[in-house]
Each structure stands twice: as C-alpha cells, then as structure tokens.
Request: fold
Amino acid sequence: MSSAPPSRATSSAQDASVIAQYEGWARVYDLVWHRYMQKTLPVLQRAAGIAPDERVLDLACGTGELERRVADATPGAEVVGVDLADGMVDRARQKLRGAPNIRFATADVHHLPFDNRTFDAVVCANTFHYFTRPHVVLQEAGRVLRPGGRLVILDWCRDLWTCRVMDAVLHRVDPAYAGCYTVGEMAAMLQAASFTVHRRFRYRFDLIWGMMVFDARPSPTETSPLS
Reply:
C-alpha cells in the first residue's frame, strides 16, 4: 500500500531564481530552443522506451514538448509533467489540450506531490543542472517509482571541454544555475541515492553541446515491501 509523501523542510525547495527565469522563458522557449529539443528529446524517448500501458512522470517538464512527442508516438501511455514555473505549466496545458492521457501540475521536484510507487518511469530532460539539491530530487524519484521502474536522465556532460567552459561561465553569470556533472559524478550521485546504473552513454551535437544519458533502476533494497 502506498503512503503519502513525507514532509520536507523548506531548505529542500528549488532556488527561487530558477522559477523567475523560467517564468520569463515560457512564451518563447519553444521557438528559441526548437533545434536543441529536436536533438535531445528523441534521444530521451528512445532511452526511456515508454510503453502504451505505462505511467510516466516528467520532472521539470517545461512547455510539455516531451509530452507532445510521447502523445504522438505512444498515445496509450499516461504522462504527468511537473514544473515549478506556472507559465511553463500553462503553456504545456495549452499545447496538450485534448490529450486524454497527459496532465500537468505545478510542483517542486524536490518535494513531489505523489504517493510512493506511483510511476513506471521517471524522466528528466535538460534540467538536472538547475536542481538546487540533486540528491533530494533523486531520492524523490526513487520514492515514486514502482518496483522494476526506471529513472532516465538526459543532461549536459562536463566531461566535454565545451561544457566545462559553459559550466564555468554560467556559474559566474546565471544565479539560477547549479552546475552540470561528469559521467562519473552522475553515476556516484545515483549510487548514493540507491540506484543501479543500467545503461549510460554520451553524445554531442552542434560542436557545443555535450550530452549524457543515464538509465538507472532502484536498487533491490528500495523495492522491498513497505511497512
């Protein structure tokens, strides 16, 4: 039997500067980042392998572009997208109006408003580098995953020199930016959050963008019956 999510201290919440930044992006995000999404979201879709009978949670869903693609490719899947920016959630709802298996909610990924063991898959595209406390996000993802579920993350990879330069610059100019990670650092974070890495790979496009993808599963100790 699932239980309600535990209460969280205010210190676990996302930094408010991220919310302000993405409220500003909401109206133009799809236009400005169109090519970037074309080069990343299909990769995440393939890695996640979403099936028609699955329930999926999308962390920091933005304008719902991933949900639109999943609705087209796998209309039977149920997808819940959460984002902390009301403007992003509003745009996503407009875009997916009429899609019966897609819904959105305003929520902090550090404190997910869902019961334990609710989803077959949790996905996160292009946003992990903004999470204020990534270890809390990973713990929450593990909590809401069903036994045998999977967490699929796509994000920038600091192993590539272009991303190391971008990481250094953003730390100086973007107060909302938390930092991107190397493959080794991401693997260590997942292990510390009681995940086992099932598959991981890197790729790059347009000279600048170096990406990494992780498919991780809750370790067996995390899938024992709840008391």
Residues 1-12, 222-227 have pLDDT under 50 and may be disordered.
